[in-house]
Amino acid sequence: MKILVTGGTVFVSKYIAEHFSANGHEVYVLNRNTKPQLPAVKLIQCDRKAIDGQLKGLHFDTVIDVTAYNAADVNTLLDSLESFDNYVMISSSAVYPESLAMPFKEGDKCGANKFWGDYGTDKIAAENALIKRVPTAYIIRPPYLYGEYNNVYREAFVFDCAERDATFYLPKDGSMPLQFFHVEDLCRFIERLLAQKPGQRIFNVGNAPVTVKAWVEYCYSAAGKTPQFAYVTDGTEQRNYFPFYNYAYVLDTAAQKEIMPGLLPLKDGLRRAYEWYKENRGSVKPKNYLQYIHSRFES
Question: Which architecture characterizes domain 2-146+182-204 according to CATH?
């Protein structure tokens, strides 16, 4: 296939571009060329918010839109594309209001989420703009994505703690559930959508939920360590010492399982993530969780 990937230099879009290129497809990436490019892709250099003829004369079998954050992003790209056969947008589980009954289902009414704010409502607007103009498009709503190239300081923070043999500070009793999805499984799911062409157009995706305690244990295990836990029950703001909001949600992924039942086990995915992180620490921007923990809990 001839594939256009928006982005292509950071985490999800970079992994997608590399995956499809490695599997024999002709991959174009659309970005501003401010970061190093993958060697096997073809660059279309422009800001997606101000495309000026760079897509003229090009046809794509598939557009994989990773960097659509609002309706204007979608409309600008669609206005600039001359022709394409398939369109896949990576959206977010942030489109579901936190007040909904769980697990969140694809048919639930989207709305503002107090934890995600404008990010979630802008994603809703992007989805709506796409559905209006391309009713046959596929929209994927993942939970927390993880894996190689992840530049967000989530599992990397726990890896740092593990390497230091640090006590890990868990919110409350550590039972809050989280849901993850490896970027390779995201690529595999896109492949299944394009091959099977299901009638359903919007899909939740994700592994089975795990507690934050189990997730930390998996991260430590990836580094060959076993964590010692301390539990923070005094109401300290969670995001000061832990990389996720105090917000537990679960997605209904039954439709995804019908199309792609087998997923990379979380424990194995985190091992891969750690192996990548050991060689690419400079690609992840750390936050000051460790400094806060030292000053708040250990000084």
Answer: 3-Layer(aba) Sandwich (3.40)
